[in-house]
Records
---
Amino acid sequence: MAAIALPGVSLAPETALTRFWWAIKDTWVLTRRSIARIVREPEQLSDVTIQPVIFVLLFTYVFGSAILLPGGGSYHQYLISGMFGMTMAGSAPGTAVGLTTDMSTGLIDRFRSLPMSRSAVLAGRTVADLLTQIIGIVVLSATGLAVGWRIHNGFGDALLAAGLALLFAFAMTWAGACAGMLIRSPEAAQALGFIVFLPLSFVSNAFVPTQGMPSWLRAFANWNPMSAVAASCRELFGGPNPAKLVSAWPMQHPELAVVIWSVALIAIFAPTAVFLFRRKVLR
Amino acid sequence: MSENLAIEARGLAKAYGSTRALDGLDLDVQRGVILGMLGPNGAGKTTTVRVLTTLLRPDSGTARVAGFDLATDAAQVRRRIGLTGQYAALDEYLTGRANLIMIGQLGRLSGRQARTQAAELLERFDLTGAADRGVKTYSGGMRRRLDLAASLMTRPEILFLDEPTTGLDLPSRMATWESVRELADTGTTVMLTTQYLDEAEQLASRIAVVDRGKVIAEGTPTELKNRIGGQRIRLTVESASSLGEAAAVLARYADEPPRTDRALRLIDAPVTAAARQMPAIVRELDAAGVLLDDLAIRQPSLDDVFLTLTGHRAEPEAGDHDALVLAGAQVQEQI
């Protein structure tokens, strides 16, 4: 068949390897797109800027005075690690809102008529949302330092804590991508954040130790991946970590638990999101 | 399979519940042609475009686009097509230039190629001044132009335009037509859908009339008009009360029963050798006491084609007003 040679557009058949390479390039193009959007509309960042500051101040000064930690220690030192978990989990509704917004415009059709990688539509969004979480970590750390939170175990451990938190955030963005494929409107995705992710954040050791919870709730909270994120941060930043007194496996090995949880969630949610995307757009 | 066909569709069917959007649609489009797909809302035009651009899988039927089978070689098809849908497919928050570059890169241009091509297209579509503003600030016409430019970033062999001028004002429509013509001159095959008869007539070298999910007629505009006969006489009576008498007179000379539009006080029918018969018709009307506001011999319009083939009008609003709107500002004074 005589193919017309077009400048720039390769018409040769592709191997799995070149397809993978293009998927990465396409993901990067769409990641840059999401970041460019944020630069033009910085209000989109409130999840990782204003919200963490408000929560830190509220919890430190309103609730902090009434919360006694088993084993003692300062509440703000305890709180900032919990906020790491909560802020990272917050990437899920953010991704869901972003994707439902994309899906509601004609842009997705254009993407689909291009010879681009299908999964890049989702991956571009999740990678961009992961990058914005770095801003969340910086804002959170700065707010923490202002209210008296300190890194006790050295910079290396602190970086490891941030890395674990980001790994968890990436897993949560894929959960959000799945939600975004199942939900129709950006408003519904926003509501989901309040109805599902906020309560799930609270049923953990993020803000209060689990020791005082009723036993059925305590079991859930100790196995909540957010508790593992918070506990691993507490261990790595240094300071009070009452979860050490909890015998549940993830509380005894929080770093490993974060890695296992995150890898498992990505392994489940990433392919599911891509599957849901294909199903949704081909109708 | 023919090498010369840009699009070759056989028996495409797609149902949504009990609604048959496509019901055995066949279509052949030669390379280098502008094909106008004409039909009312819900005829299946958009569904056809979505199937042919790989956005939608048909329930049954096969199609080859640019020589590649949609079912087995969708990726190859995507590398050779461009699509501008009904709704602007742009990122509102990005600049016009950033939109084009992004689409070029996703269409497998290198960063440098994408930037060069974007600059060229912005220039060609008269958007250079607004290139570095957010698309949010663009007018409807500018968005459409950018959207069209976006679908040209990868220099497609076949361009699909789904109602490219719906909602545009006249100058923007004409500018869009101009761009489409230029594209076709460079050898690009264009398939556009429209509900505007004048658009099909102005742009398309071939027209496919679609109704209820099928192509019911295909040919050049002239072929289609010839198919329903030659000249027509149209008269407007002064008072609706004389419509019956006037229709009876015209019926004696017409090749088929006249059509009457009460609201516009119009009667219209195909008449063989219309000019020669005109004096006799006028004398009879005069004898019957019918007062006329207007009397004209005209060539059949695509609207006549449509009405004859489908039994209903192509456009929800009035018939061939558009042809007159296009001709200039002198809109329809004679009615």
---
Amino acid sequence: MSGRFAIAIDRIKCDGHGVCADLLPEMIELDDWGYPIIQPGAIPPSVLPHARRAVSGCPTLALRLQALATKR
Amino acid sequence: MTLSVLAGPPPNAGAESYAAHVARLGPAPAGTRALIDTIDRSNLRGKGGAGFPAAIKWRSVASQRTGDPVVLANGAEGEPLSRKDRTLMEQRPHLVIDGALLAAGAVGAREIVLYVGADHVGAIRAMQRATSERPAAEREMLRLVSAPVRYVSGEETAAVHFVNAGIALPASIPPRPYERGVDGRPTLVQNVETLAHAALIARSGDAWFRSLGAGGASGTTLISVGGAVPQTILIEAPQGTTITDAVNAAGGLTGAADAVLLGGYFGSWVPASTAWGLVIDADGLRAQGYSLGCGVIAVLPAGRCGVVETARILAYLAHESARQCGPCTFGLRAIAAAAGRVASLTATDGDLDHIKRWCGLLAGRGACRHPDGAAGLLGSALRVFADEFELHDRHHRCSVAAAHSVAS
């Protein structure tokens, strides 16, 4: 399982706990109100473990990994 | 003046009856899959605001294999500057119903929801009466639902959500309504004006529809013209004509004007000198970064302050936020508060700088496009009224002083 993924967020579920920015600072920062600003595009392979932790660590389970169309 | 969906009895004649409608236009043909190709060739665009090609929407619903499709005719007109949908339903209810039935036939739906804003009292009455005039087989397909009076009610996931669960709030996508909508079934959510045009295209063909437009553009479009014109008025304009033509059709300018709000509260401010020459055409406008939205042209009269008007609209949009997503709930609220201070000449340190930075933090950060719409409007205001914003913020002064004596 080494496809390319992006971070997708359900904005309605997100309550701005900010856990994701702690677990995945490489790709997520918080805005002035504590809601995530997510870097778009593919997650670099080196960061993927952090991304998985952010997805499962979100208190409202608002994040998921979204498979990107594979480019050959 | 080219009239198409508004052709027929004059505006003061009230709702056209079924008998008069059929006598004028003849019976509608049956809606078939082939109609989608005709709609495609006609280049009909959605008239609810996004301007999405109707045929692509119809085709994506028709190709789903997850249950019997549903058609939701969207007549919840939340845009405060728009009157077109309620007026169309009041005057030509059978054209809207024809379009919905044709769309149903084309995508394979047996059920149609007529979703009409609860405050559009005349439209509800006209649609009720029109439904009762229809043959039983059609009547049984039609269900009238009154939509709560709020800005987001007409957003397509909110419409589906309300029909399903009585909650007119946007839902997260995916799934989009064409995949899973009313009762979990593929649902075609289409604005009532779009359906009315489809009803005429089905009768007269795509070549006829294309010939209505000027300079290669297709068809006509309904536009609510307001502001510095004799009265707020609904016109039907051929695509391919200019904003000047539309303003003249509305009776012409009542005085000097510096800016035009194109597309309503989700639209953008355009300097008047640029606006007059703009061509009413979805593709052409988009290429220049503009949109007619749900068909709104509002001319800002000289003597009214663009900063004040923008702050007022932002306050409205912040209030109308569904408050489901953080950036819209808190970001838009903060922007509206700061813009209110700037407008009322009570800006505190950094208000305008904050507004400029926050404006970039709205787009794409909600379940629906509400924050995107607000950011688009604000961004255009910051460009068009740049000097005026600076003057208000830094010097607590307004070059259009009169505006502040009437603003509340």
